Amino acid sequence: MSKKGINAFQSEVILSAAYNCIATQGCANTSLWDIAESAGVVLSQLNYYYKNKEGLFIEVIKMMINKYRAEVESRIQLDETAIVSKEMLATSKKQTMKVSISF
Prior knowledge:
The chain has 103 residues and is an all-alpha fold. It has a single domain (8-94), classed as Homeodomain-like (Arc Repressor Mutant, subunit A, Orthogonal Bundle). Helix content is 67%, strand content 0%. Helix 2 (32-39) crosses helix 3 (43-50).
């Protein structure tokens, strides 16, 4: 999803706040207002950049996948005897992920 010019730092703050709120309260119990307050932004920013709670949740999932992938890549580089091959990781990057969430 294009963030229409949202700067990287602000995006990281919002996504981290969303992750923390969802991790502590659960997705169903977390409102966009909770996330905006935790991130120190106005609610309209969340609505503009992420459209709705589902859009924001999908971006949080993508952020976590990217962090996990980076961790796996760094461990593969450190451990030449890793079971997961670099080729398998490269293949997984090429595959597209579709997330369907019901709220």
